[in-house]
Amino acid sequence: MKNNLIRTSIIMLALIAFGAGVGVFTARQQAAQQPPQIQGFLWPEPKELQAFSVVDHANQEFNLDNIRGKWSFLFFGYTNCPDICPITLAVYSQLYDKLQASKTDEAVQMVFVSVDPDRDKPEQIGDYVSYFNKDFIGLGGSAEQIETLTRQIGIAFFREAAADDGSYLVDHSAAIFLVNPDAQLVAILSAPHKAEVLYDRFLKIQSFLSGRNPA
Amino acid sequence: MRPGITHIVLLLVLPCLAVASDTGKILEISGLWINEAPPVAKIHAAYLNIRNTSDEDITLERIESADYERVEIHESIVNKGRASMKAHDVLEVKANSTLKLQPGGFHLMLFTPSRRMLAGDSSSFTFYFDNHTQLVSSARVKKLAGTHSSHKH
Asked: What is the dihedral angle through the alpha carbons of A47, A48, A51, A55, rounded to the nearest 10 degrees?
């Protein structure tokens, strides 16, 4: 009887150990397949952009067709903005350099949209962004045209009261918006912006959405 | 010996010089620089440090520039994702402290440059304080890190 008890205990312990081993193995397999964590900037159900129409520096229409097939970073500002906008576009420039150097197999475009239609004409916007990088895209248009894009993204911009000389400031979003090649608004990247942080987040978002692990 | 005109002038002038040089040591401006802007931009930004070594708060009341029509003091504010700029008529520099005007925060807003300001150029500014101090400082034009030279002139 004593031998039976010992034998039964050994078998029970062996079964428990086996079960624990299976559990650990399974957990490790699941952990290996777990997608990288995004730092709270990713929307679980990305919103697909609807039709919009603005113009580029050559006064040519820029619409959904120009968004599809590429990753697009969008920033909304104005050329008379002396501080936040040039700072952000300088970061844009550093980020773009990193993306180009990484030889990512997906096309990326850096877009600046002026929310100051009264002063920023297409050619001027083009000159402004090309200062930071000749590949950057500057967009503008009438207030109605700009709103076809800003409203669906949820951008608010506000023109402040003019000074005696007619000059005025424009309140605008400080965030950078990320749109994927399927024209889905996938993330909002909050200020303050640093190129290395944006780059890291972009890679993680790419991997998360594609199910791959980052390189 | 009877005091002559020279003596009287010296008696009047010397104390004033002493006061001026004294208050000049109380305040110091350093690191004044202008961010090189795209050619189309007509409003620029300048940044600097203002050091107050006195035991009293001192107020910067106005700034004049040799190369800009107007200079204002502004503060960039990002609140819940919205960027705005707040104008300040004056700027207080607390006693025994250094006030830093830097990108993304307080800055000088420079309106309507009289010439193209390129990296390496210099521009003179005069700062007027409420303790009757005037400080002249030369700003160096620089590019923010990451800004390329791919622009057209």
From this structure: 80
CB-based contact A82 B44, cutoff 8 Å? yes
Q: Which of residues 113-152 of A touch B (CB under 8 A)?
A: 124, 127-128, 130-134
A68 vs B82, higher pLDDT: A68
**pLDDT tens per residue across span A13-22:** 666 555 555 4
* Predicted pLDDT at A130: 96
- pTM summary value: 0.80
B145 contacts A83? CB cut-off 8 A: no
Contact B67, B111 (CB under 8 A): no
Alpha helices per DSSP H over A34-164? 64-67, 84-101, 122-132, 143-153
Does B42 sit within 8 Å of A191, measured CB to CB?
A: no
DSSP 8-state secondary structure symbol assigned to residue B143: P
User: What is the predicted ipTM?
Assistant: 0.80
Q: Which residue has the higher pLDDT, A12 or A76?
A: A76
The three-state secondary structure class of B127 is strand
Instruction: Report the alpha-carbon distance of residue A173 to residue A112 in Å, rounded.
Output: 12
According to the model, what pLDDT value does residue A156 have? 83
Say whether residue A101 is in contact with chain B using an 8 A CB cutoff: no
Residues 43-82 of A with CB under 8 A from B: 77, 79-82
Whether cis (ω within 30° of 0) applies to the bond prior to A46 is no
